[in-house]
Amino acid sequence: MPNVVRCYRCVFAILLGLWLAAPPPAYFAELAPADVTLESALRQHIGYLASPELAGRLPGTPGADKAAQYITTHFQQAGLRPLGEQGYRQPFPFVANVRLGRRNELTAASGTLRLRAKPDADFRPLAFAANGLAEGEIVFAGYGIAAVKEAQYDDYAGLDVKGRIVVVLPYSPAGSNPHTKFGPFLSLRYKATTARNQGAAGMLVIAESDDFNRSQIARLRYDDAFGDAGFPCAVISRDLAAKLLGGPVAELEKIIATTGQPASRMLPNTRLRLRTEVVKERQTGYNIIGLLEGGDPTLREEIIVVGAHYDHLGRGGPNSLAPREGDIHPGADDNASGTAGLIELAQAFGQRPERPKRSLLFIAFSAEEKGLLGSAYFVDHPTTRGKRIVAMINLDMIGRLRDNRLSVQGVGTSSVWRSLVTEANRRHGFNLALGESGFGPSDHASFYKRNIPVLFFLTGSHPDYHRPSDTADKINYAGERQVLGLVGDVIRAVANLPAAPDFVTSQANDPSERARGGFRVSLGTIPDYAAEVVGVKLTGVREGSPAARAGLQADDIIVGLAGRDIRSVYDYTYVLQELEPGQEVEVVVLRGAQRLTFKLVAAQR
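RE: above sequence
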């Protein structure tokens, strides 16, 4: 097999050299008066997509619909054939938000004292609360942190919370600073998972603000993860907490801050009844899909997908990095820049008389910011009508070229990528930063998980990322034109290769996985973050990994790990943070109608 691969690479190198020696069509590569026209077109596209009129292109909103119509019009002008399910559009459902249901109640009794809280005034369910009823005694569990190994701190030490309702403070003994030893344990999801693993029947989190209406953690805001907490949980006002706990909340915070020790305690004479009901609101997103048929009668049955996501954050939300919510996030670089590039590539290839040998499928994805939902839906519901996808090229944030430095990720997903990209760059002269991994927080990852070679072009992050300051005036339009020159040449080269790019499983880790957890182990699972399931659905497992050796497969749904219930990817991440390399653990999965248990040994990351 190694000899076959080596021979393949030799043939490829010869053919690529011949291609580079021949004078190629000047799609974008050569300096010409048309460059001014291209930059003007990019200004027009980005200026509109990032305008206040589109209000941040949040999926399911009028702004997103206007963006979809704009892209559709330009796909039509480029001569692309509609390949959606509704013309150019491919609709897909997604959970856009949550709202209060009708059955939310909180009552408490302590001796002769009776309390009845008002929804939205005294308490509010958390967006990931399970719908249902919890009743029991109250236990004050400090900050709800159990991290003996990681932070030498445990609010649950000596507490028996089984069947009880825990009341916890927001954040940590070090406040909300994510850069302390308590950083990984600040989130409300973590507090809920920890309380549930300790056996609690429900959880109340005390608001961080004296004014309940100004509390950030009390806002009913969907966090784009389908799985719920597994029990009822809510945020309560500080006034209500003081009545339940028998004293000011600030005093408890002061005691813990002063001593550095938990101040947890039982409240055996106080019983509480909590019912929560949260309704998930569904909307429809749209991928915009157009086909340029290839010129070769045989190779046209193979497709190269060229993609970019056109959605953004609207006026903020859980993925915003702005200090406040409510301001429009224009998303000029993320990803009006990639969408504008997609439109112009479609125009360039569509309007030329000669066609590339393979077909090109141009797709503008929606709901990328919500977890790659649009691209995940497409790979599960392809509209290719019998044609085979052989490669995917992704454009996401290509508008801030600095120091002539361009990042190209995914070169480890095919044995031909590194040579092809490097040789094509000889005509452009970028300082290339080549990355092996096919994973990453953008739409190419959905294709890589389906064993499709990918390339991901980007000019890198910047201080305006996911902030209202990501505006059209900060785009380097000349730089984006140059990036599109290289991308256009790469697309043409791939479309005209005599053999489709082979797929290689990249040995590089998922960078988003490191960012989420920073944990010490790897199991080799590839989660499907877009799946609407209770648990963690797998799109696959890495070859030779602990998960693969144990027998886990694509489409398995992990519902248990190391003795813990897994209801969401958050639960899964928190367990991984606790595991040690070499530790043997049980994994419980649902495979169709079967519930199966596997044993595997966690590997060193």
